[in-house]
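Dear Dr. H.,

I hope your travels went smoothly. While you were away I took the liberty of generating a structure for the chain from your last submission, since the lab meeting agenda had it listed for discussion. I wanted you to have the full record in hand beforehand rather than looking at slides cold. The sequence, exactly as received, is reproduced here:
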Amino acid sequence: MNIQRAIAIAIGGLLLIGVAGAAAADGSTYAIKDQVEHSVTTSAQTSVDSSQSAAVTAKAHSSSFSMKPVRTTVQTTVPTTAPTTVATSTPTIAPTQTTRQVSQSPYNGAHAFPGRVQAEDYDNGGQNVAYYDTTTQNIAVTNSAAAYRPTEAVDAELGTTFGDIGWIDDGEWTEYTVNVAATGSYTANFRVGSWTDGHSVVVTVDGAPGCTIAVPNLGAYDTYTTVSAPLALTAGTHVVRLTFIGGGQIIDWFEVVAAPTTQPTTVATTIPTTVPTTIKTVVPTTAPITVAPTTVPTTAPTTVATVAPTVAPTSGSTLGSAPSQAQIASFASTAYATGTSRVSAMQSAYRAWSIPAPSTSGAINAKSNSYANLAGNGGTDDSAALQALVNAVPAGSKIYFPAATYVFNAGSININKQLTLMGTTGTVFACAGSSADVVFYLNRYGSTSSVITGIAVSGITFEGGGSGDNTMIIRANNCNSLNFNHIKMHNVGHTGIAIRDCDDAVVEQSVFDNVYQSGWGYSLWIMERSDRTIFRNNFCVTKGRHFVTVGPSVSGVSVNDYTGDILIENNYFEYSTNDAVNAHETEKGTFRVKNNVFSNCNQAACMWNGKAEITDNTVVNAAQGFDIRRTYFESNGLPTWSGADIIARNTLTGIGMDAIRVDRIAFAVQDNVVRGGGSAGILLPSTVDGAAHSGSTISGNVMESVSPGVSASSLAGVTKTNNWLKSGTSYLSC
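The corresponding predicted structure, in token form, is as follows:
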């Protein structure tokens, strides 16, 4: 066991103190409030963490299972530079080929390539045959952690939905029998991490060199990233060996996928970030049934035809009155199975995401026109040329940017007329060196008397400067019927898209990859006086603080200027360090969070204000699930809204703390399925002003591994019926 693990937790604690100090130094009202609001969550996490077994402290790299609430908090200490893909042509160490033993065989059947292999599913055969480990026993067993294959020496763990191999020492290796479908060039992806420098994984195939990947220092002991390298394979059955160079690293999974068919651009545009599709424990979600249809903008995007939702909603169900034990069990198992399918489908949809070919008829070519031509050579700064082009073309024009890298580092580009900006596969806007606070301003000096309608952006990849970058890529003011579709935001530190005074904005079919900075990190920031915003069919991956957040750009926003209707629908959210979907006090709603998948997020959604409808979502591995509060309304004497808040037909599994927390006057929590980590399934804290709940219901919920099922300081005004908590093999009324 590497000595570095013994100090990892202490280092993590110091890093957290540093992050808190850095956040306090942020002068923005919004940022400060964000830190304050999450102090409650942080304190609760600390309480939960301290209740873990002493073995967790000894387990310096700490898996995402036994310390789930810590995982997302510690992630805030990841280095400011995003990990890059590193590949070397030859292994740094050439492991010797072990003579094959008759006893070696694949675990869980031979693994298919292309496909993914969980690292802990190494071959059967034992020490010096299927693996080599420096210890004679699985350290997860000796540390009283949840061990996977506890009788083997490999230090593998098992969590709620996936496992890993930790406690890795220099020179250890594991082998995997795989079946390759066809001879060809592939891309090998590895989900790995380390908290120190100088680590790598050497891959050999039947003893011959395959590839080597460098494992980046992520600054925390339980943080993962995905690193890639090319790998040539021949058809047939092979034995793949992973040899680990350097102690103090972890691996979750590795996979082989088809190599890209197009040449990469000069600025990297992808970092694989999917989470395991081989989910060992069934996960969650059912889908819509009775929630009223949502109001959506009447204007449809015109630039690129919108593809149907990446994962179509499935039919939800409710638990009937007086159900039998078999009906309750079937209700829960159906929810878990549906959730498993949805997680896998969303991950597949993300991997298949691409930019469609645009319709360029009538469009102005940005590199060849009579107004101003951009260089698009990856070196020349195109800021002035684009500004000249935007100023010269008539309103209503479509500007097409052919596949190329366009550099925008010399200040903001101001777009003050209705335009459509179109790209294609390989169109990259490189903004990593921008000197501006905002790279692209849409109607920068707009007001209610100078609203621009119909600006659209599609088919463009925006490259930022990573987590150390304090630049906002796009900010729109007083723009109605905005449309962003099939765009990609990659390595953006501050904010991808921010809208203020904008009605009927749509962000869809897009990817937000590693939009993160300590204290910031928003894919979409919805500011004051914006109404009917839609965020749907998007993929928010790798890391983010809040993927979607609602909050003011200035202090002192009046109630009349609060944000209005918002629909967050059918998105995939992965690895947020705070709540993935977040609404501050300047939201009046209705805020609909519908049919999304949240994977390994600190919290799925937290709403401090505004009427909430949270329905048909899947939540996998989170410190907390859903939290709706009324703190600011009650403490500031602000007006309430009519109708009940709804949290219905969601499935949540692997929840470290409270799965559903409700602090509202009138609400309905119904037909949710919860598998927790020991805290309450449904929590009703005392209301801010001491008032009783009124006209509220808690019904048809099925829970397990929570305690208690329903926790409330008072159930006055609440009708609680037909709720069930699993005890052993039976479900008891709770």
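Two observations you may find useful: The CA atoms of residues 440 and 474 lie 5 Å apart. The domain at 87-258 is CATH 2.60.120.260 (Jelly Rolls).

With kind regards,
E. W.
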